[in-house]
Write a structure and sequence with these properties.
Oligomer: single chain
Bound molecules: 2-oxoglutaric acid, fe (ii) ion
Strand order of the largest sheet: 1-9-6-11-4-3-2
Order of helices and strands: HEHEEHHEEEEEEEEH
Largest sheet: 7 strands, antiparallel
Shape: globular
CATH superfamily: q2cbj1_9rhob like domain
Distance between the termini: 36 Å
Length: 272
């Protein structure tokens, strides 16, 4: 398979509920009530194989200024090793992944959840290689997103089995859908702010999707297992708030550029 084949989003071996409405009504109700919903096997095994190949091909490309954004991190188990932590801003440079992000059942499912057509806000692959760090408890909206839109939906697509051992996503339980920040912007949610709910790991299989809104508290642990845990995160806003992708990436480039564009000695801190 080649990266020039744009997926239709409706390959024959997959039977979504319908092309326009991939999520059943009870999933939309679950999302409305709790702020998240799991969509098991939204992508077929052959689609996941294709996406996995595309991700590996992207990760093997040379890092160049002006192309997709690659961020590294030292391994927690062997700090002399540098791992790819994540790749962002790849849609303009990869037609296959762009098709998944912008012309697939993800956009249609997100439109169901937001109640109108959506625009892609940002796209990211978190690699979480063995030795990759976890993510402190946060709401995505805390990362300054309110300047672009009041609400987003993120579609998480599991590419490798995500397990308790390799740091699968953890979701807040015992909480109705929050519609506001429960903590200040730019810092993790603390114990006091999270005392009303508990965190529960949600192991997922390749092809599973999990949709959550930008006020939904989530976290994940470090990967201290031998298996990698690649997950795609595609984030959308309602089209009535406009196409904010360009503005977001212009701003983010100034405060948190990809590693290739960092001046030696400059310090950049990942906050949430
Ligand atoms: O990859 C994960 O486990 C969670 C990532 C996340 O929440 C984020 O990047 O905002
Ligand atoms: Fe997040």
């Amino acid at each position: 398979m080649t990266s020039t084949t744009a997926p239709s989003g409706t390959t024959p071996d997959h039977a979504p509920l319908s092309n326009d409405r991939p999520l059943p009504p009870e999933s939309v109700e679950h999302f409305d009530r709790f702020g998240w919903v799991l969509a098991p096997a939204l992508f077929s095994p052959s689609e996941v194989t294709q996406i996995s190949e595309w991700i590996d091909e992207l990760a093997a490309r040379p890092e160049q200024s002006g192309r997709h954004w690659v961020y590294h991190q030292p391994s927690l188990t062997d700090p002399s090793r540098s791992l790819i932590q994540r790749i962002e801003n790849f849609c303009p440079f990869h037609p296959g992944l762009d098709g998944i992000a912008r012309h697939s059942r993800l956009t249609r499912a997100s439109a169901q959840l937001l109640g109108e057509e959506v625009a892609l806000f940002k796209e990211k692959i978190n690699f979480k290689e063995p030795g990759g760090a976890g993510f402190d408890l946060h709401q995505d909206q805390q990362a300054g997103w309110s300047r672009y839109a009041p609400l987003f939906v993120t579609a998480m697509i599991c590419i490798d089995p995500a397990t308790i051992e390799n740091g699968c996503l953890e979701v807040a339980r015992g909480l109705d859908r929050p519609d506001r920040l429960i903590a200040d912007e730019w810092r993790p949610v603390n114990d006091q702010e999270s005392s009303a709910f508990t965190m529960q790991p949600v192991p997922t299989e390749p092809g599973d999707a999990l949709f959550f809104d930008s006020y939904f508290p989530h976290a994940s642990k470090a990967n201290r297992s031998p298996s990698r845990r690649r997950i795609l995160f595609m984030t959308y806003n309602a089209l009535s708030f406009g196409d904010q992708r360009g503005a977001y990436h212009t701003d983010k480039y100034k405060s948190f550029p990809p590693d290739i564009d960092r001046a030696p000695g400059d310090e950049y801190r990942f906050r949430v």
